[in-house]
Structure formats: structure tokens, C-alpha cells
Amino acid sequence: MNRPFSLDLDVVRQIKLPNAIQVQRRGARRLPNPREALAMVLGALGTLNRSSGVQTLNTEVNGKPVALAMIEGAQFGEDTEGNTTLNEIASHMVTEEAI
What we know:
Blueprint lengths: L22 E3 L2 E3 L3 H18 L2 E8 L2 E8 L2 E5 L5 E7 L2 E6 L1
Antiparallel strand pairs: 1-2, 3-4, 5-6, 6-7
């Protein structure tokens, strides 16, 4: 069931990375297809859930379904080149290590 969820869309950002993850099969490298990409995201969230806790929420934005994952103890940031980082937040101190 989808419940109303208040979200300030003016602060939502796109993820920016210099290189996309590639998969390799029989020596050929390629971008993952959508099914493979979703499996990688779920695998990564499952791994994070073991150490920090991950909560999920299904909602709608502009009438379209949206799946949100909330990672406890983490915040998105940017490196010096503007690429997206995911930083561990421990005891009110921001660590410099990007995940």
C-alpha cells in the first residue's frame, strides 16, 4: 500500500559518477541490463543492511511509483569533481571516506 510521503523535490539530485559499473561475460564488457542493475542495487542494500540498517518505502512522485531506500548512518555528498559519494556518518562526525 502506498501512503502519502512529503518530499521537497527541490533538494532531490541525480547521481553523478565518472564511470558506470560494467559486467563482464566471456571476456566482453558491457553495461548491465536493467534486471542486472536492479539485482546489484538490491545486493548492495542487503549488504549495507547487515551493518547499518536499510529501510524501504514505496510511494508516488508526480503520480509515478517510486521505491525509496533509506540507509541509516549515511548521507550523500560530492567529491571535489562533483561526483556523488555516500558517506558514513558516525557519532555526529562526517568521515572523509566515501563508500
